[in-house]
Amino acid sequence: MVKPKSIHDYNTLIACGLGFFLICLFTSYSGIGISPDSIMYTSAARSFAAEGTLKTFNGIPIVDFPMFYPLFLGIIKVITRVDPTVFGAILNSILFASLLYISGWIMNRFVPSSQLYKWLLLVAIALSPGLLQIYSYLWSETLFILEVLFFIIAFRQYLNTHAGKWLIAAAAIAAVGCVTRYAAVTIVGTGGLLLLLDRTLPIKKKIGHIFIYGVICISLLVSNLVFNAFMSGTVTGPREPSITPFIKNVYYFGTTMCDWMGLTPDQYFLAIPIASVMLLGFILSLAINYFRRSLNSYENLAITFSLVYGLFIILSSTFSRYERINSRLLSPLYITALWGYTSWVLLWLKSIDAKRTRTIVGGIFTLLMLGFIGKEFYIDYDRYRDQVADDYGAPGYSDASWQENEFANYLRNYDKKLFKPNVLIYTDAHEAVYFFSGMSAYLVPHKFFKKDVELFYRRDHYYLIWFNNLENPELINIKDIQKVKQLKLLKQFPEGAIYEFEGVDVVPATVGKDSLPARPVVRAPK
């Protein structure tokens, strides 16, 4: 098969234009989507631009998230003097267009390669509902998914040449990835696994390369975690044990795959079989490539990353508690999994001698991909009608429900005399208070952290800003508080209220006073 000419990369710009347009389209009504995570990133970026520090709106160093993405936003803010909530839509449009270009560049170098295959997959990537959602929000995945592809390019060069410069380049990308998202340890794991499986590398050289690779990969992550421990006493913020067992997480993995395949919730009974087949298929493909000594292809790198990342998400969700496995969490493996489960068709077609049979197989694959793309387009169009045509916006703090929210509008222009100075403000959504008012507020304690609950109930004076529609069952709620504390209503709105507590208990407190605020816990985005 003739190697594709580099000029073929230029026609990928058409797909880049489509991707740029789609992100602009989905952010056209209310701008970039804003979730609780987005506000954490934004406040830290503002802190960097103003003070050179990476602190959240509560003046606490950002530890629940790695520091590179807010630093990235902060650097752009320093250069442009524009806030991330303003430049976010254009930034993500550029990042998504870049993702499509890099994807096309890699597919041009598949062996064998096919322009028809490349264009079918580029359209499938551009129209992916999961990726379009990711790039419609200020989320670190927008940068992390690009880093995955850059790592694949660099590590493939290393596997081809075993040159130290490419090993260092790949390790450096992995290191940056680890301080973009903690889940980037899967990039480190991908490279480490392939280094171990590489039978063309002499054992002595292999040990040296694994050592160099490992040290560089974890350098920034270790620095980040040490800084977190020094500043907050925890390496990644407060964490809880998981409440979802392994089999349930496999099921959630499978439901996400069902969604990506265009299946409906009525077909979720296929979730566990689909998840099992996908993961076992990746293991089998990796084993076959190992025995064939073909570990150095882009396709194998994609398969290996998909396997490592998928298993990591399932296992980490089994031991640590965070948001349920969903499309956002699994988005970094969308492109690599798509490559892993379609690129074999190119090898199959190459092995078929009969032109007629090759045409039939190629035609069937094309029809299947067009059906898949059609499903994606239908989902995207439905989302367009809900969020753009009906003037709603991306769900989150920038959507129409918050723009027309009486409570939010009051907070945007609140009476500063309402709050006495030096009195703590508590809330069930501290990121919302900051986003709408600019005020710092502490999150009411999480039920799991009993000490924090006790500390909260010891307080003799504070304000409480409560959002009815954001109630989190994992936090103590307003009814719990009112059973113990006599709250004075200051402002009432259809969507919530503002209260003050000043030393009057419904049930007398049994513990002494304490001056420390409850530990803030970052809520997962909805």
Automatic annotation (TrEMBL):
It is a multi-pass membrane protein. It is found in: Cell membrane. This is Dolichyl-phosphate-mannose-protein mannosyltransferase. The keyword Cell membrane applies. Keywords: Cell membrane, Glycosyltransferase, Membrane, Transferase, Transmembrane, Transmembrane helix. The chain crosses the membrane at residues 12-32, 60-79, 86-107, 166-197, 209-231, 268-288, 300-319, 331-349, 361-379. Its main location: membrane. InterPro entries: LipidA_mod_glycosyltrf_83 (IPR050297).
